[in-house]
């Protein structure tokens, strides 16, 4: 069972959302192709980031919890991560948008963007020596600035609310990956390369990383839906 741990985490993360996507009230399955294109586009830079960080020891994987197939230094489960996790996240966003009127959140767009950009910019300036912290902060600043000022995305606050809801799943999934309930973590972090602030076992950078990935996923998903 141990070699299948990471794979099982991904399976249980995605299976309920996958089955529910065929529900007639949701019909997310009609958007699978748009999702897949969006997921691949977003995955490319994030996987390159992952490969580079792994190669330079910013983080590394405990292969005892994987099936042993390695591609570019990453376990195959890590590659699947960039499909399975975005699927569940975008399914949740799609469902919330379908069943709830979240247009009231639009008034918070400016506040969320400016507050996040200021905080992340300060963190990047103060911790430029910590690779994970610095890159995550810079990517988040770029993400928010582009989406708000150039793409004119009116849904940032709505996505932020959904991401907050997704924290209910983020903690058990990332918690296990970072060592909760296991003899040792599946994903290990170089203590010199991040702030050292953890939410239980999860580095705070993981949440910010996930937030940027989530926003880009929505952006491209909406783009491919229109096409």
Describe the protein in words.
With 227 residues, this protein is mainly α. 65% of the residues lie in helices and 6% in strands. Strands 1-4 form a two-stranded antiparallel ribbon. It is globular, with a radius of gyration of 17 Å. The model has no long low-confidence stretch (mean pLDDT 97).
Fold blueprint:
Layout: H1 5-20, H2 32-55, E1 59-61, E2 70-71, E3 74-75, H3 76-99, H4 109-126, H5 131-150, H6 156-177, E4 187-189, E5 198-199, E6 202-203, H7 204-226
Antiparallel strand pairs: 1-4, 2-3, 5-6
Helix pairs in contact: 1-3, 1-6, 2-3, 2-7, 3-6, 3-7, 4-5, 5-7, 6-7
> What is the helix/strand order?
HHEEEHHHHEEEH
The coarse overall form would be globular
Strand arrangement, major sheet: 1-4
Radius of gyration of CA atoms, rounded to a whole number: 17 Å
Biggest β-sheet description: 2 strands, antiparallel
Helix percentage: 55-70%
Structural class: mainly alpha
Put simply, the count of helices is 7
Query: Into which percentage range does the β-strand content fall?
Result: 5-15%
**Poorly predicted ranges (pLDDT <50, ≥5 residues)?**
none
Assembly type of the chains comes to: single chain
Number of strands: 6
Distance between the termini: 43 Å
Mean pLDDT: 97
Short description:
It contains 7 helices and 6 strands. The chain has 227 residues and is mostly helical.
């Amino acid at each position: 069972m141990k070699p299948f741990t990471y794979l099982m985490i991904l399976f249980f993360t995605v299976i309920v959302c996958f089955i529910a996507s065929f529900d007639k009230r949701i019909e997310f399955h009609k958007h699978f192709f748009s999702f897949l294109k969006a997921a691949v586009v977003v995955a490319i830079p994030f996987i390159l980031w992952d490969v580079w960080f792994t190669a330079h020891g910013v983080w590394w994987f405990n292969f005892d919890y994987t099936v042993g197939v390695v591609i570019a230094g990453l376990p195959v489960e890590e590659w699947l991560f960039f499909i399975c996790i975005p699927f569940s996240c975008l399914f949740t966003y799609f469902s919330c948008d379908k069943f709830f009127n979240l247009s009231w959140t639009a008034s918070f767009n400016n506040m969320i963007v400016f507050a996040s950009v200021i905080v992340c910019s300060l963190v990047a300036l103060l911790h430029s020596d910590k690779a994970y912290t610095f890159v995550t902060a810079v990517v988040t600043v770029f993400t928010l600035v582009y989406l708000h000022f150039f793409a004119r995305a009116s849904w940032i606050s709505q996505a932020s609310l959904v991401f907050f809801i997704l924290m209910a799943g983020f903690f058990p999934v990332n918690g296990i990956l970072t060592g909760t309930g296991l003899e040792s973590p599946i994903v290990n972090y170089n203590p010199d390369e991040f702030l050292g602030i953890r939410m239980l076992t999860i580095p705070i950078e993981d949440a910010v990383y996930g937030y940027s990935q989530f926003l880009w996923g929505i952006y491209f998903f909406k783009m491919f839906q229109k096409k």
